[in-house]
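Entry for the shared binder. Reason: the reviewer on the internal report wants the predicted structure included alongside the sequence.
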Amino acid sequence: MATVPAMADELPNPENPNAQLAISKSVEDPGPYGPGDTIVYTVEVGCSAIDVGVDCSDAITTDVVPEPLEVRQVTPSGPNSAAEPEIDGRNIRVDWTEPLDAGGEGMVNNTTSQVQITVQVPEDLNHDQWDGATLTNTATAEATNANDTQPATADVTLAIPLELATTATKSFEPTSALAAAGTPVTAHLGGTNETNGAVETLVVQD
């Protein structure tokens, strides 16, 4: 079962909210995805209010990209302008900066904007740890005059193939000697498992 990471509460809920945010999250394809594959998520955030002239003040969208995915690009779009996205590791924040009629910035009433998040599966994932794993990506929206939304999530699965790889070593003791009959020579054989997972047996032949 997928686990939902805890979201940071960037803005406290207001005592008297007069606007409402809605959020949804989707992914182009649920997978499975393999090493090096690109995944594209889309977050949609909507602002609504009953009262005329009320917008979503200082609205932000936050997203937690699950381990081990790596963030490659974050692109806000839609009718509301946005600041340059803040990316801290796998934590993403988008501040909506559309000028509001009542002053300040945020999201305009009765509008919906999007955030497209492009991530990549690392090339060197361990088969035993990540093959078949379900990853949950979580986003939320907040504003100073609206209660926080419930987290919106989208799941993908990974398929990490077992790639067998070994390294064999061989050395002699002594490393040099006269080629005389009866001179003892000892050969040392070794092997290292470089597979992206555990193996039951490693055989070295000479």
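Summary line for the report: Residues 67 and 159 are 15 Å apart (CA to CA).
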